[in-house]
Amino acid sequence: MPVSRAGGSPAFPTVEDWVEQYLRAWRSNEPDDIRALFTQDAEYHETPYETHWIGRAAIVKGWRSRWNWQQGGWTFDWQVVSPGQEQVVVEGVGLGNFSNVWTLEFAPDGRCRRFHMVNQEITG
Prior knowledge:
Structural class: alpha+beta
Distance between the termini: 40 Å
Shape: globular
CATH topology: Nuclear Transport Factor 2, Chain: A
Strand content: 35-45%
Number of helices: 3
Radius of gyration: 14 Å
Strand order of the largest sheet: 4-3-8-7-6-5
């Protein structure tokens, strides 16, 4: 998926397409769907869970290890909140009770080279 850049930033439709592909990969858990999202040397970080998967192979392995945990259904409502020059920020609510902030850095070919997610459980 080539990233179309305006002023150095991925355009909203491209970011939207990438997030939709991300969600499709969560639903399928297929290695090819996951690999398609990330560069070979990508990083995937998740806070506060201390997830640090470095390289596409580690991302695929870690991602697939969560398959049983997410069974039973989930949703992710999201929006782009900052396209930035170097990074894109996405906010969303997933699994019904987790607030997520994603910071995404894309390679010129449209794949993500750095993914950082901050999760916070929504209470009361």
